[in-house]
Amino acid sequence: MYKQRLFAIFNILGISMGIACCIVVYLFIYHLYSQDAFHRNAASIFMVNHVRTVNNQPELWTPSPAALAPALQMEVAQVKRVVRFHNIDAVVKYGRNLFHQQIHLADADFFNMFSFPLQEGNAQVLNDPSAIVLSHEMAIKYFGREQAMGKLLTVSVDGTFNRTFKVMAVAAPFPNTASFSFDMLINYTIGKHLGWQDQSWKQQVKATFIELNSPVAAHAVTQSLSKYVKLHNQINPQSPISAFYLDNLRDVSLHAHKTRHAFSSGTSPTAMWVLGILASLVLLMACFNFMNYTIATSNTRFKEIGVRKVLGSNRKLLICQFIGENLLTACFALAVALLLVDALFLPAFSRMIDFYSLRFHLLDNWKLIAFLFLLLVGISLVSGLYPSLYISSFHPVSILKGNERIKNNLILTRTLLVWQFGLSMFTVAAAILTTQNAQFLRRMDVGYDQTRLLVLQAPTEGSFNQLRNAAVKFPNVVGVAGSRDQVGQTKDNSVLLEYKTATTAVELINVSAGYMELLKFRLIEGRRFLPDSHFDADNAIIVNESLVMAMGWSQGVGKRIRLQEQSYQIVGVVKDFNYRFFMLKIAPCVLKLNAPQENRVLTMKINSGDITAVSDYMKAHWQKVIPDLPFEMFQQEDVYSASYDESRRIKDVFTYVALLTLLISAMGLYALIALTIAKKTKEIGIRKVLGASAWNIARLVNQEFLFVITLAGILFLPLAFFLLRRLLDQEYAYHIPVTAGVFISTLGVMLVVTIITISIQVFKIATSNPVKALRTE
After folding, report:
1. β-strand pairing of 57-61 with 259-260
2. Could you report the per-residue pLDDT of 430-453, keeping only the tens digit for each?
3. Alpha-carbon span 170 to 133, nearest angstrom
4. Domain-by-domain residue ranges, the chain?
5. For the whole model, what pTM was predicted?
6. How far apart are CA 24 and CA 18, in angstroms?
7. CA distances from 442 to 461, 587, 606, 730 (A)
8. Are 460 and 159 in contact (CB under 8 A)?
9. What is the pLDDT of residues 466-521, one digit of tens each?
């Protein structure tokens, strides 16, 4: 190892990067499967979800009736506790400070069911309806270094509910494996002051949790839920469900990707598989480098092997020696990998994924230690088993006479190099493709004009009208419209649409008559809403083209459907527009007129003037109209930031992996070229003496490796085309096509990296004195 220090460093560095990638991906997957494990009774806690049949397909939904929890508590013996969990958007006031805040409501047993640690206060805090519980972060945000306990906070909702709560508990910092948490928490019974019906089968809550006496009772409880299906459907015939089912607390985030209105965020299995495969590829490429180096330098160790055999060493001992050397190299690489994970890889990955907080504590995680041990053994066997078996098979007499040479090492090393370049090509193509797709999403037509739109939400009808009147007077505002909902910001607004015997889930967006004109929705059939039309106000809806296609209609205008137990006529069809996450396909959507007194969202179209001037103007009027509420205005383009961030995360991951694989490939290629040139030193010296130019020498060295790249492209790029197209289809509803340009660019990148790597070595040999190479001849 010492004699070939540079190559040893390359091997250690390559394997360390592979191990570091595997550690980071292991931490990510381990984090996902450890969600909510800190709750003492996690195995006995279940969330009650339900199944709906839409277009003859089952759909999993999270919301549940408010009346279900108390019914289960009273009627099902195996149920120990029930907790409903819901959230509201409110304005919280402390002193002169105002904040928009999401507040959660939960039943009194919340802290008895869940093991969220409390920094101050006790688990019975929610028995007091006037109590409010703050998270650690909120206590600092509102009170700084002051004592939070006993402080009073005023909570306002929609300008109607106004109540003062006393801080009676402060939560400790939440464990990083919590799939859900809260900023502020109050008793669920407060909902009755907001017009909620506690025992209603029509009122929906975000989640219903039950704790069973024993996890094994889950099957029996699931069977008991069937009677509540009948009760629900009798009361809600317009939105029937097929079944209630239980989802264990530790599985909630894992199943979030396939559940509508999911309670917590989650990662799809595809993402876990892709990350696991990418990390394995990086490590496998480093192992290929190690194998190539071992095989390429094996001839230099033949005399050592021959002497050892003559002195009595058998084949098994030689194999153990080679694998032991590989294990030692892997141990050095592990030490470097641990430093890389802590200093570089984990911080970079955390910045890329953005929404998970991963922590690296090796000594506290025996499963990680076991994983690393298996990884070391695997690396030693993969990179050292074949070379050790083959090299140790030769006869000692032949070795010492110099008759033995590894004749097929060229074929094997080049085969491994083809694999290595092929894997690099795949990751480079993926990086180029995801980068282009991220740019495509940025430029994608969202189906309406989202530019220079400012949005402001008012709490009451009166404040909306005053702000609207102020907006139309400002010269830079060229148009305004009101609505109850805003495109891109509808939350849990899915309802069932019925047409004859068919049903489908649709997104309901309530708007005013001028809203479609202001945002320039594209009408492809029928008409828009008519202002001051009594028929449109009570009977008309406009649908998107996805709904027409989903129902199998040739045209939509004139069809009568039922929505929320009322009959409507379709008067127009608009071109599909994006109203949700870009990764999801545009689903059926319905636009319906809301009453003028329901307008709360003010949308303003700005001309080419300064947006800041409009914002300052509206803020001044806001403070006159609603001085007790914080001013928050946003641009319509901002509603798609989550989609852009997601595509950016995917692009960053593939780019990062592509850079690693290119670096490992370059290091492996550099080592092989150095060994090749070392074997051809005298040949190159003779050629230089006979007048060969640097170009001739470069061509001599280059042609073999350029052939390897070409072969790798022929073998791997078609496979990359198939796999990347499937990946895009799986992860993106809308994406660019996979074209030949991506793979031409990939070949270009690989050629540039190869030529630069080779040129470094060729320059050294081309500028050296040929006399030194021929001195011993």
Report:
1. parallel
2. 999 999 999 999 889 999 999 999
3. 6
4. 1-35+269-407, 42-252, 460-628
5. 0.82
6. 10
7. 35, 20, 21, 19
8. yes
9. 999 999 999 889 999 999 999 987 666 778 888 888 888 889 999 999 999 999 99
